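Handout, section B. The chain below has 119 residues.
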Amino acid sequence: MANKFEVGQVVTGKVTGIQPYGLFIALNKELQGLVHISEITNGYVSNIYDHISIGKEVKVKIISMDGPQKISLSIKATENNQEKASNPFSTQSEDQQIGFDSLKEKLPQWLKQASKELK
């Protein structure tokens, strides 16, 4: 039954257990996966119960599968795209190129872009 799930797939599951290290999520009647505490949300999680409760349905992304019974999941990965889209204060635009060009080469482009954005 595990073969219907793939890494990268976003699915809905139900929280069946909470431990200090993460959440157990039932993907169907036979399979469950683990959301490690670091994959619950961005930032520090001191008390998992502040973020989730048993029985709640959650959207999770499958981040790895090591055999049919060891599935690693992430809630945080499903929220990142929504946060990027709704965050007007994002520090990097999608068309921004990252590299090691010298400041002398990039500065005129940046000034031109900033001038356009101010208008």
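Note. The first helix runs from residue 76 to 86. Compare this with the example in section A.
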